[in-house]
Amino acid sequence: MAASTTAPTASTASSSPMAFFLQGETGRNTRGLLRLIILCTIAAAAVASRLFSVIRFESIIHEFDPWFNFRATKYLVNHGFYAFWDWFDDRTWHPLGRVTGGTLYPGLMVTSGSIYHLLRFLTLPVDIRNICVLLAPACSGLTAFASYLFTSEMSDSPSAGLLAAIFMGIAPGYISRSVAGSYDNEAIAIFLLVFTFYLWIKAVKVGSIMWGALTALFYGYMVSAWGGYVFITNLLPLHAFVLICMGRFSPRLYVSYTTWYALGTLASMQIPFVGFLPIRSSDHMAALGVFGLTQLVGAAEYLRSQLPSKQFQTVIRSAVLLIFVVAFGGLVLLTVSGVVAPWSGRFYSLWDTGYAKIHIPIIASVSEHQPTAWPAFFFDLNMLIWLFPAGVYMCFRKLKDEQVFIVIYAVLASYFAGVMVRLMLTLTPVVCVAAAMALSQILDTFLVASAPTENDADTKQANGTPAGANGSIADKLSSALPDTLRSTKSPLVGIYSYLSKSLITGAITSYLLLFVLHCTWVTSNAYSSPSVVLASRLPDGSQHIIDDYREAYYWLRQNTEPTAKVMSWWDYGYQIGGMADRPTLVDNNTWNNTHIATVGKAMSSREEVSYPIMKQHEVDYVLVVFGGLLGYSGDDINKFLWMVRIAEGIWPDEVKERDFFTQRGEYRVDDQATPTMRNSLMYKMSYYNYNSLFPAGQAMDRVRGSKLPADGPQLSTVEEAFTSENWIIRIYKVKDFDNLGRNHQDATAFEKGNKRKKTSAKRRGARVLRVD
Amino acid sequence: MEMRLLLSLLLAGLVSTVAALSAQGSKLLVVLEDESEKSRYSQFWTDLEDRGFQLTYRTPKDPQLSLFRHGEPAYSHLLLLPPGKGTKGLGPNLTPNLLVDFISAGSNVLMALSGEQSIPSAVSSLLLEFDISLPPDRNSMVVDHFNYDSSSAKESHDVLLLPGKNAGGSKKGVADILSVDGILALPHAVGAVLGNASPLLNSIIKAPATAYTYNPKEEQEGVEDVFATGDQLSLVTAFQARNSARFTLLGSVEALQDAWFDTTVQHSAPGSKSEQAANRAFAQKLTGWTFKELGVVKAGPVTHFLNEGSQQNTSDLTTLSDINPSIYRINTEVHYTIELSTWSVDHWVPFTPPASDAVQLEFSMLSPFHRLNLAPTTTPANPNASLFTATFTLPDQHGIFNFFVEYRRPYLTNIEEKRTVTVRHFAHDEYPRSFVIMAAYPWITGIWTTVAGFVGFCALWLYSRPEKERVELKVKEAGGR
Amino acid sequence: MKLLPSVAVAALSLTTAVAAVGWSFEDATLTVQAKSSGVGGAVKEKLSPESPLSDPVTLSASDSLKIVLTATEGTTGRRPHQAFLTLHEPTTGLVESFPFSLKDNGKGKVEFTPKDLPYQLASPPSGVALQASILIASFGTSAPYNHATFTLTLPPSPNEPLTAPETPERYAAKPEIHHQFRAGPAQPPRLLSTLFTFAILATLPVLLIVTTALGGNLGHVSAAFGAAPVAHGVFVGSLLAMEGVFFAYYIGWNLFQTLPVAGVVGIVAFVSGGRALTEVQERRVKGER
């Protein structure tokens, strides 16, 4: 495969000792072999650079979603495929439960599951956890290979593919989601994305049903693996549409597109979670529309070839246009009438960044849905980001079908990457490809050892480069040159001075080295921490591991009933389910806004209000994250406003965000805090007994940097059950109803020994006589 | 800890089966002011001892008086006689908190008061925890100028005569446990007012409509403002905590004295003849209820199973293959059974709810989807329990549900049986197949027609011989392909 | 509970009949003083110990009711220990009493406004009037007095309605609940489905007829099988076999049974298909197609 992609034109005018290896049949083989070796080393580098997390910390599943994927994979491995398919999970979203089998993308789990079984079959018993931890790096190796193939389709420079491969291999933008242990859909999805694009380009080029079918196959795999498949679903039609508009409609396009759409749609509908979306939701309507359009255009083309009459063509054209318009109107009608689901909220938030904040706070509350800060681009892509435009420009210079694809991809992806941090992921591949094309152009031009000679100038009017590898550059340049230039008496184009060659080459080399350096640094420092375990530096510079999360989760696992329901904010649902193995009320799969709002209400209301809610949901323990002691800023008090907002969305008259701000609109936790704030369950649970750590009146919150009231909050309906070493996790047990039917405030007051006043027995308002 | 608890439970069980008539235990602690009082209640003591109680007498100041031993209640029951004159409280070993802990630990308390002696503030503050409030001035008593014993209290009118059959109220759906025949005499009773909110409280005996409280020391001339009047005054009050521990407040301790056990009383209403007071029988009922001889209900095994297929309408549960499964599917029929029995004298007998009352099963997630009255039947398998059964279809909503039987009724111990089951959705292969749905036939035929068409097309493609004159075009097509 | 008042009433009826000396009252006047109107605007009624007032007294939210009387034992005015104005709400049977404040000569008065009443009495169910009776009794032997004297109606005040306290929980059987099931999916008329089924089936013969009409035929079967018998046989067979696999999957196979078989059949079809199509190609080149 590698050898076949580039067919070097053996040049005659050369006689170096290496000639034998560099020319003719043997030369092709040598280069093929070299390429293979280089690719393998690239893959190795890609994998190796992702093992930092394992070396720095341990072989552990990372942050949040991976924990669910891990749990689901274990379920798949233990109970078999069909049990997984029909899985009703009664340990999340208590008491609603979740039809997990039908609401997840099974690709990831099934992949690692089959790897597991394959290894067992090969008598290599490997722990499923290790497979899950190492799946992402393994896939990154494949991604590098796929991007090599992809780029090789784009430019016929032999080095472009390899450059793209290594860029893709070590670009932080992709590493951020694929280090060892981040066992997430993206890990495998990016490989599928790139490979599907490769197959698509191949199909468009060759115009064969087989490639189209393969595209559909891998598209189906992609659908089963990641919700981001919608990107492909809209990008390929867009490509086809643009080509048609450019008047580049061809049987090749027709065959490849129709094949892909028909088979791909069928394949995608096999995933329960997707089901009938491809024909019901607007996100997929573009593909359908273009499918219809290709049919029309195809018919028109055929007719035109049959009867070449001028008026008839215009008739055809207008007919096509008319039908297209009618179809579009029909689609709009269907959408309005509700047969076709309107665009999903997440989609809107892509176009209007303010949309989510107003309409869907849940989505807005997710950190990775925030708009990207511009330094992130440089941080994640380093020098590629400025090579990227050059590469896109190169595409314009030679605008074949596949280059059009790159251009479209580049435009869309860079917009999306600007809107959402996490979509940096979809940008990275195209950046790598474009940058590789630009760089390879430079290298091909400047890495030619010998100067062009006069005599063969007329035979090849470009820099007649002797070495076979560069022989093709002549054609490339000639094709690259605008016709206007070439029409003039062809000048001698080429680099003569070794100085400039060495200068440029040196500069590029140093850039590449810097790039590698940057990537390594970013990977090891920024993207390798499994946010389950926090690392901090001691004064002497040595690393200190803060392991409160696991400490608390294992406490739950070992000290509570297996059926004890744990209420926490949804961020920690997956981890509790995965590490503590306890039922949770809400988790990171935020499918039920109302349920999350209920938890938000319980957290942000007074105890008397929260207690009935917790009792109704059979809550046994409440878990809060508190960073005040350590200065850990990602704690619940900082997330508190989101809980309030989400709750306010459902109960606008019971929970009001305004009540949590002081008169001057500040969000405070010290003695200036509003009564609503200080009476909220979350506040009480966070700061309960906190000032016992400090001398009287000295209690200090290191995150908010504010001094706390002298007398801490009092709790009556819950009691402290566990607090982790650094107070990051605090677990409270919900009390049972009072045995004597009192409310908990009175009960605790009585236990504290102060007598109840007679007046408290008398109820305010009109007296009420006892009726039996 | 668990070990000792287990042991004590075991012992309690043994004792209760062997000797005591109480369903809980026989150790009864009696706290009285001094030994001299003891003689006044001799008949009462003998009644209790005949019923198998082991009485221990202590005075509040007794150093070895302690409600707990090794953190466990030292006695199953406690009988508190009113403390003597001028005592501030019940002493250091009977503080309100200790008594509340004692009750929370499941033990029962009978507290008797007297209008003759002033009530310590500790007692009234303890009672406030039960939402029972006593008159503010410490020594007040209930009088009724319409229903008094004209033979003993011709002048003072402070011996109330009340019909015994009203004891425990005569409400529909409430078990009639405490009513006795004849007339009760309650001398120098202290009336209490019960909070309206608490469902744990019940007034066993209310004062007559014309009764009122006054302070015999200060309000000789007449009452200007009264604490409470009429049937808002509760003379005998029953409180049953959530853990079924019982607390009874008897307004008039004299009613238990020998003097009032076998005396004849005469109602103040003219023409009413004198008769024997029914105090003794009432005292037995009252102590019987307080000390868990009466109105004790317990739940036996709970079973539920899928009432479909092979095990449909199974009467003999032992033949069931899959009993008490942890997961069901929506829209399936389920059979539920719970065994209830009640304590009678010295053994368990089948329980039957009082008239116009029913044991109810809730099938609930967040809120009940079903609430069904269970039909009582008896089973030959277990002669001393009655089966309460229901058969119903699970709701068409998946989730984590509870079979929940919560039977809380006045004067009966609480039953709370919760069984959690998962109700799952249809699995992918549990829907009706397409060939049993008439509406699917067009689609099925569509598929197989296409298949046939495809095969036909292949055959045509492979084996069709063209007419001669169209050869050219065919070839051109072939080239173009 | 209902019994006790009746006992009392019986008792007192007897006493009034028999006992010579008994408690009673005289020159009693009832005044309903409206806060708005002055001294003049007050309703006055005389109460007699024997017969209750014929028409009910209305007491609206802002008014205050006042009764002045002289309690008598026999004929002499004396102060009784108990002199109550008792209000009785017939539906719930709740009773609330207001003691008279008395002097030694038996003169006394009681005054209250609706705000002094407990909730249940202050807002009785509409159309229900409170039974007001005066109750005079004391220690000793003389017969007590308890008579219904008038009925009191309390019109609900529109401007400040009383806040109803939440109904207290009492343990009792609750009403039954039965889950309402969603209606199943609607089916189209069977006739329609059968009609369409046959319509679709009809397309197959139509297709055959049209193709034959356009000159489609299987004339080359012999030639093809002559040239490459194995290839053609296996290819066509594998095509049919693949459909068979699909059918088996539809009937009852699961993925793990289907996929391997489908894979094998597919490979066979691929290989043999290649051969067969080359044979077709040869024919085409020969112009026989």
Automatic annotation (TrEMBL), chain A:
<feature type="transmembrane region" description="Helical">
    <location>
        <begin position="403"/>
        <end position="425"/>
    </location>
</feature>
<keyword id="KW-0812">Transmembrane</keyword>
<keyword id="KW-0325">Glycoprotein</keyword>
<keyword id="KW-0328">Glycosyltransferase</keyword>
<dbReference type="GO" id="GO:0008250">
    <property type="term" value="C:oligosaccharyltransferase complex"/>
</dbReference>
<feature type="transmembrane region" description="Helical">
    <location>
        <begin position="33"/>
        <end position="55"/>
    </location>
</feature>
<keyword id="KW-0479">Metal-binding</keyword>
<keyword id="KW-0472">Membrane</keyword>
<feature type="transmembrane region" description="Helical">
    <location>
        <begin position="187"/>
        <end position="214"/>
    </location>
</feature>
<protein>
    <recommendedName>
        <fullName>Dolichyl-diphosphooligosaccharide--protein glycosyltransferase subunit STT3</fullName>
        <ecNumber>2.4.99.18</ecNumber>
    </recommendedName>
</protein>
<keyword id="KW-0256">Endoplasmic reticulum</keyword>
<feature type="domain" description="STT3/PglB/AglB core">
    <location>
        <begin position="566"/>
        <end position="621"/>
    </location>
</feature>
<dbReference type="GO" id="GO:0046872">
    <property type="term" value="F:metal ion binding"/>
</dbReference>
<keyword id="KW-0460">Magnesium</keyword>
<comment type="function">
    <text>Catalytic subunit of the oligosaccharyl transferase (OST) complex that catalyzes the initial transfer of a defined glycan (Glc(3)Man(9)GlcNAc(2) in eukaryotes) from the lipid carrier dolichol-pyrophosphate to an asparagine residue within an Asn-X-Ser/Thr consensus motif in nascent polypeptide chains, the first step in protein N-glycosylation. N-glycosylation occurs cotranslationally and the complex associates with the Sec61 complex at the channel-forming translocon complex that mediates protein translocation across the endoplasmic reticulum (ER).</text>
</comment>
UniProtKB/TrEMBL annotation, chain B:
<dbReference type="InterPro" id="IPR005013">
    <property type="entry name" value="DDOST_48_kDa_subunit"/>
</dbReference>
<dbReference type="InterPro" id="IPR055457">
    <property type="entry name" value="OST48_N"/>
</dbReference>
<keyword id="KW-0732">Signal</keyword>
<dbReference type="GO" id="GO:0008250">
    <property type="term" value="C:oligosaccharyltransferase complex"/>
</dbReference>
<keyword id="KW-0812">Transmembrane</keyword>
<dbReference type="Pfam" id="PF03345">
    <property type="entry name" value="OST48_N"/>
</dbReference>
<feature type="signal peptide">
    <location>
        <begin position="1"/>
        <end position="20"/>
    </location>
</feature>
<protein>
    <recommendedName>
        <fullName>Dolichyl-diphosphooligosaccharide--protein glycosyltransferase subunit WBP1</fullName>
    </recommendedName>
</protein>
<feature type="transmembrane region" description="Helical">
    <location>
        <begin position="440"/>
        <end position="463"/>
    </location>
</feature>
<feature type="domain" description="OST48 middle">
    <location>
        <begin position="324"/>
        <end position="464"/>
    </location>
</feature>
<dbReference type="GO" id="GO:0018279">
    <property type="term" value="P:protein N-linked glycosylation via asparagine"/>
</dbReference>
<keyword id="KW-1133">Transmembrane helix</keyword>
<keyword id="KW-0472">Membrane</keyword>
<dbReference type="InterPro" id="IPR055459">
    <property type="entry name" value="OST48_MD"/>
</dbReference>
<comment type="function">
    <text>Subunit of the oligosaccharyl transferase (OST) complex that catalyzes the initial transfer of a defined glycan (Glc(3)Man(9)GlcNAc(2) in eukaryotes) from the lipid carrier dolichol-pyrophosphate to an asparagine residue within an Asn-X-Ser/Thr consensus motif in nascent polypeptide chains, the first step in protein N-glycosylation. N-glycosylation occurs cotranslationally and the complex associates with the Sec61 complex at the channel-forming translocon complex that mediates protein translocation across the endoplasmic reticulum (ER).</text>
</comment>
Automatic annotation (TrEMBL), chain C:
<keyword id="KW-0732">Signal</keyword>
<feature type="transmembrane region" description="Helical">
    <location>
        <begin position="258"/>
        <end position="277"/>
    </location>
</feature>
<dbReference type="Pfam" id="PF25147">
    <property type="entry name" value="Ribophorin_II_C"/>
</dbReference>
<feature type="domain" description="Ribophorin II C-terminal">
    <location>
        <begin position="181"/>
        <end position="284"/>
    </location>
</feature>
<dbReference type="GO" id="GO:0006487">
    <property type="term" value="P:protein N-linked glycosylation"/>
</dbReference>
<dbReference type="GO" id="GO:0008250">
    <property type="term" value="C:oligosaccharyltransferase complex"/>
</dbReference>
<feature type="transmembrane region" description="Helical">
    <location>
        <begin position="230"/>
        <end position="252"/>
    </location>
</feature>
<feature type="signal peptide">
    <location>
        <begin position="1"/>
        <end position="20"/>
    </location>
</feature>
<keyword id="KW-0812">Transmembrane</keyword>
<keyword id="KW-0472">Membrane</keyword>
<dbReference type="InterPro" id="IPR008814">
    <property type="entry name" value="Swp1"/>
</dbReference>
<dbReference type="InterPro" id="IPR056790">
    <property type="entry name" value="Ribophorin_II_C"/>
</dbReference>
<keyword id="KW-1133">Transmembrane helix</keyword>
<protein>
    <recommendedName>
        <fullName>Ribophorin II C-terminal domain-containing protein</fullName>
    </recommendedName>
</protein>
<keyword id="KW-0256">Endoplasmic reticulum</keyword>
